[in-house]
Amino acid sequence: MNIVFINSPLQDYGKTQKKDYYTTPPLGLGHLATISKNLGNNVNLIDAEAKGLSLEQTIFKALSYNPDLVGINLLTPTFELSKQIIQDLKKNKPKTKIIVGGPHATINPEQSLKQIPEIDILVRKEGELTLTELFNNNLNPFLIKGISYRKKNKIIHNQDRKLIQNLDSLPLLDRSFFVNDPYQENGNLKSVIMGSRGYPYTCSFCSAPLTSGRKIRTRSIENIVDEIEVLKQEHNIDSVHFLDNDFIYNKSRILNLGEELRARNLNINWRALARVDITARFGIDFLKRIKQDGCYQLVFGVESGNQRILNLMNKGTTPEQARQAIQYCKEVGIKTKAYYMFGFPTETLEEMNQTLNLAKELNTDTACFVLVKAYPGTEMYNSLLKKYGDKQLQAYNHLQEQVPLDIPNQNFDKYHISNDLSFCKATPEQLNNMLRKAYNMYYPNGDKKETQNKMELVGV
Ligand code: B12
Q1: One digit per residue, pLDDT tens: the chain, 460 residues?
Q2: Does 211 contact ligand 1 (Cβ within 6 A)?
Q3: Ligand 1: which of 73, 108, 368, 369 to mutate, judged by most atoms within 8 Å of the beta carbon?
Q4: Ligand 1, from 16, 34, 49, 75: best to mutate by most atoms within 8 Å of Cβ?
Q5: Strand pairing partners for 101?
Q6: Is 293 left (phi over 0), alpha (psi -120 to 50) or beta?
Q7: Does the domain spanning 2-157 belong to CATH 3.40.50.2300?
Q8: Which has the closest alpha carbon to 297: 269, 255, 256?
Q9: 245 lines ligand 1 (CB under 6 A)
Q10: Is 385 helix (H, G, I), strand (E, B) or coil?
């Protein structure tokens, strides 16, 4: 079969120029493309976001592969754009099967199938085993777990499929499908690796566990280092970016990584996401060890400088733990990046200023300030439903036009969609001003050096 996977663009780059920022490869689609190819299909992956393709270019490129099947990911903010791509594809080639998956499809299967009648099959949660069964069943979805589909105008939801427990059983990613991995950054050749799936924490604004579950399922350290060894041999990478929501959660596991890299003589440096409470608890000796083992940066979701808001977020951390964790990193020479949020329901401007003051005090090497978003299926979304109703929240989430705020540092442009809705005690304009204030404080002149350093991940 001719199969085309499409990574939806964040904006229609036919209407607005894509800013020059780096975005990580769609690992989920990469896994599906790898498995589909291993099953003997002719597979292509179009990364419309990384390539900055217009909807027209995306559709034209997809049709040029004469696809029997097109697989496209549905994320809430990119839903309307994905819908247009699907409808135009189906209009041009009605026989092509359209399969969707990803966070929004998993969280809202019924609504997705109703709002995009051109979808033939919707895959909920992980797609590797479901797609394999579908291919072996000539694309007949009957009784295949993890699928929702339409039969005579009736939407059918098959039984849920269990999440993959043994991640080592999956084939290593075929990175020839990616246009932006490995990638150059600050003279380093880097690759992105996901060492686990699932997330046990319950932050009320995050929908990650809704697709990947609340239990952390890990690849073995041997399996991860196997992939690093291949990347070293094939591309001579010298740096890894771990995308796990929380890479630093098990001390011995991370120390084993260092030992395994040394045992195989792999000189690699790495960065990862971590929680401030765990990092503070693991302490400075642990950080000294992972620094020696190649850890050059840790990324923290600090989120707020106010305990009331952190509690409402169910973050389970404190500003004091953030101070401790970042102080330890500075002492051992591990670079730091922090994410902060403004606009949480009931948050006041005074509480947002506390976040700004904490950001100034922590003074991490890099920082990113975003406006909180209400994603479907999250506790926050459900709590706002009573006040705003699904229709208004959906309209807010499915913004057609995304109007960047004039923040002096274009790397963060795509985060900042001009909001016309605020869930907190500030107006949308006051929220946008808070963002400008934050970036002006952190990157006074959006100065080039700083910008250069930001050729990093965005959007995680
Ligand atoms: C890495 C990451 C990114 C990367 C890559 C995104 C990508 N396209 O893959 C970058 C940094 C680019 C990114 C950007 C954004 N992200 Co992001 N991202 C993540 C993160 C941390 C991990 C995703 C991942 O790689 N998982 C591992 C792979 C193996 O799993 P997967 O992607 O879920 O794919 C599996 C299944 O979902 C399914 N599947 C997925 N796609 C498809 C397609 C088909 C056809 C099928 C059959 C199956 C299928 O099968 C895959 C294999 O099992 C998740 C949080 C999380 N942990 O899940 C947030 C997350 C997906 N991101 C999110 C969001 C909102 C965004 C942004 C819109 C943020 C913004 N700027 O506004 C942008 C969107 C940009 C874009 N066009 O993609 C939200 C989505 C919520 C929602 N309801 O849509 C999440 C869940 C985080 C959250 N806070 O809730 N993100």
Answers
A1: 999 999 999 888 888 877 777 789 999 999 999 999 999 999 999 999 999 999 999 999 999 999 999 999 999 988 999 999 999 999 999 999 999 999 999 999 999 999 999 999 999 999 999 999 999 999 999 999 999 999 988 999 999 999 999 999 999 999 999 999 999 888 889 999 999 999 999 999 999 999 999 999 999 999 999 999 999 999 999 999 999 988 999 999 999 999 999 999 999 999 999 999 999 999 999 999 999 999 999 999 999 999 999 999 999 999 999 999 999 999 999 999 999 999 999 999 999 999 999 999 999 999 999 989 889 999 999 999 888 888 777 776 655 444 455 555 545 555 554 556 788 999 988 988 898 899 888 887 665 444 444 433 333 3
A2: yes
A3: 73
A4: 75
A5: 73
A6: alpha
A7: yes
A8: 269
A9: yes
A10: helix
Q: Is the CB of 104 under 6 A from ligand 1?
A: yes
Query: What whole-number distance in Å separates Cα of residue 456 and Cα of residue 454?
Result: 5
The domain limits of the chain are 2-157, 182-454
**Rg of the chain (C-alpha set):** 22
In terms of DSSP bridges, do strands 97-101 and 69-73 run parallel, antiparallel, or are they unpaired? Answer: parallel
Q: Are 97 and 120 in contact (CB under 8 A)?
A: yes
Task: Please give the distance, rounded to the nearest whole angstrom, from the Cα atom of residue 198 to the centre of ligand 1.
Answer: 13
Nearest-angstrom CA–CA distance, 287 and 284: 5
Interval between CA 104 and ligand 1 midpoint (Å): 9
Q: For 414-437, b where at least 16 C-beta lie within 10 A, e where not — what string? A: bbbbebebbbbebeeeebbebbee
DSSP secondary structure of 42-101: EEEEEEHHHHT--HHHHHHHHHHT--SEEEEE--GGGHHHHHHHHHHHHHH-TTSEEEEE
- Residue of 211, 242, 455 to mutate, ligand 1, most atoms within 8 A of C-beta: 211
Q: Is the CB of 304 under 6 A from ligand 1?
A: no
User: Which residue is listed with tokens 């796990």?
Assistant: 244
Q: Is 198 in the pocket of ligand 1 (CB under 6 A)?
A: no
Ligand 1, atom 48: nearest CA belongs to which residue? 101
CATH architecture for segment(s) 182-454:
Alpha-Beta Barrel (3.20)
